[in-house]
Hints:
By secondary structure, this protein is of the alpha+beta class. It folds into three domains: 2-14 and 252-309; 20-76 and 198-250, Mannose-Binding Protein A, Chain A (Roll), CATH 3.10.100; 81-196, no CATH class. Helix content is 19%, strand content 32%. A hairpin with an 8-residue loop joins strand 7 (126-131) and strand 8. It starts with a strand and ends with a strand. Residues 1-19 and 312-329 have low confidence and may be disordered. This is C-type lectin domain family 20 member A. Pfam families: Lectin_C. InterPro entries: C-type_lectin-like, C-type_lectin-like/link_sf, CTDL_fold. It comes from Danio rerio.
Amino acid sequence: MIQRAVHxxxxxxxxxxxxxxxxxxxxxxxxxEAQAFCxxxxxxxxxxxxxxxxxxxxxxxxxxxxxxxxxxxxxxxxEWRWSYDNEDLQFSVWAPTEDPSSxxxxxxxxxxxxxxxxxxxxxxxxxxxxxxxxxxxxxxxxIIFKMSWRDAQSFCRKRYIDLASISDVNDNTAVLHVITSIxxxxxxxxxxxxxxxxxxxxxxxxxxxxxxxxxxxxxxGGDETCGYAFQNGLLGDRDCEQLxxxxxxxxxxxxxxxxxxxxxxxxxxxxxxLAIEKKMRMILSNLETDPAFxxxxxxxxxxxxxxxxxxxxxxxxxxxxxxxxxxxxxxPAFQDV
Length: 337
């Protein structure tokens, strides 16, 4: 009896991703409904901020004459808002040189060592203040570890309540004292931002890479905080409750299967491949998988697919043990405010 091993590569949408593509769902839904549909039946609403993403949009919509369809962009706010509870800006101490009314780009606010606030690129890394909700006798926590505004927001929401909201002169004076008298920092993030667009799949937003259509984003309806794409891949903003078709992002997956075939005679490789492919197609056709799968054979180093094994050869399959992640300590936090 001769055992022969074969490596079979199945592209069936069941394992780790190797490529991606967008599809157009020509069924109108609100942005939230579209997001739920994509997450249930595919992966998510797509991220569209690079040339290759815009090309995917063009490919997915090539069968229609024109389209405006939801993508994964959401949360654009053309007014300054506090991160905590999405509160409106009531109190402010903008520097005389600042123009907080500009809506041409995403921006986040810092407090400088003069006590004035400045609009900054949200991707810059700076220390920041977290809101602690008056727990343990302190309202704010100063984090000296430098992060982008978005990462700082995530940090504060996970370990405290949110990034700091400054509601009056007393708050501003207390925060200013920390960065000037205690840590002598030039500036630090506070929880104020505008036009803070996000992607549904949590990809980082690169404002310069967003391909907005002419005149967009314009918040034309007064509450246009969700993003859609034209057929050319350029973006616009619209009320999230409007009904539009939508794009979904899905992954093409790959799974490697190793088989041992027993035979009392030498095998014809071509015939064996055809037999196995036929059987696998029968199995896959009965599963709830993406029908657009393909089967590819993996050759060994000698160019052959089948390799003979000795009779009663022991199973030498090795299972790799995953090492635990190395713990990373939290950056220091101080409750001096």
